[in-house]
Amino acid sequence: MSFESRVVLRQGKKFFSAILLASLLAACSAADDGSTNSGETAASTGGSSSGDSVETTGEPGIPDNLSFSIAADTLNPEGLNWNGEEVNVTVQLGDETNSFVVDGTEVFFEAEFGVIESSCTTVSSRCSVVWMSGAPRSPLPFRDSNVITRTLFNGLLPCGNLPSGIPCSYNNRVNATPTSPKSFGGLGQVYGNRVSIIAYVKGGEETFADTDGDGFYSEGEAYSDVGEPFFDYNEDSVFGGKLADGTADAGAADVGAMCYGDDNVCYQEGGDNETYLDENGNGLFDPNGNGKYNGTLCLAESNFCTRSPVTLWTAITILQSGSDAFTGVYPLGSDVYLASSYTTNINLNTTPTLVVAVSDIFNGRLPSGTKIKMTSTNGTIADGSSCEVSNSSATGFTTCVVEMNPDATSSSGFLHVEITTPNNTVSDYFRVLTD
Ligand SMILES: [Ca+2]
Ligand SMILES: [Ca+2]
Ligand SMILES: [Ca+2]
Ligand SMILES: [Ca+2]
Description:
Elements: H1 3-23, H2 33-45, H3 49-53, E1 69-72, E2 86-92, E3 106-111, E4 115-116, E5 119-121, E6 126-132, E7 194-204, E8 293-294, E9 305-306, E10 310-319, E11 326-331, H4 340-343, E12 346-347, E13 353-359, E14 371-376, E15 380-383, E16 386-388, E17 398-405, E18 412-420, E19 426-434
Helix pairs in contact: 1-2
The structure holds calcium ion (4 copies).
């Protein structure tokens, strides 16, 4: 769904809320931020007879797909080298009017790596489970021998020229081309330590825009058709599961489908182990739903809507960050793909501003809260003597800018970078500074 149509849906949803809330006062007390505004709108439009006369068979408290949120309190825990590192994963649901769902709504969870509590039941429209680091930590078996989980020691171009162990800078937000998938930068697929977590809830309904304002889904009205839940291990937005012989699973995207749909939906390698929930039991992955609005605001079964519930789902990616730091230091503005930028002695007279790049072995972020401290035995540090790894599972790693000054004596010394993780793994890196 495009951003534009999302906006339209949201507006329609708000208008619909105004009418439904007028006749479903019980829902008012449970309104969240989104429907508080709708409540105000209802007050200004609720006097109309059409608002009062709407008789709906819709049932409040059933989750709808646009109100399904997921979050994690730590996005990059220290999980690669430690078992039992805990992350609280919280989901929040809402119904068609953005009101709370019925207490006790059960939400199920599955995780790609580590282990996770299998389900939770909502209280006040939300609930949490615990994810813990542990085995499995890597995608075995990989059935495509061309695909490996890349580390800093086997990076593809443009980072293959760099000394081993140097974090590989790249723009991971590159758009797809007809021959390369999106986000294909630096080391190449597959990025290690990225843990896909899916959450799903049975018995939900689809969100629609009640354009004609009758309180029901009417033929032709826009709605979001929910497809079957799937694990997107390689984060290419498509289901790419493969059978043992390397052929695509039924309904799965394959190499021939590279960059289908819009430019940001592209098949990438590394989705071999992806799985899906065959909700309609047809033995085939169905990405696009059934072509009908599913929900209780379908008046009667028809060719454009059904009262059958759907399984709603959402996903989040967290990191199982490594404890050992890999570091590269280069003068600000130098070519990050040139080996000499990381190896030539740094002259503080000509390049006093430095960038310290720190990643784990998979070129991803170190654990949230990792401290990076800079000291020097030559020149002085004017600014940026310490920084910290943020709470994030975005691709890429941490860079810190260190502003230095040469001192009065021409000499040679070291920049010392000391990296300490929350569980006290310390890594040291030294770089020669001259002035
Ligand atoms: Ca309608
Ligand atoms: Ca549907
Ligand atoms: Ca995929
Ligand atoms: Ca299916």
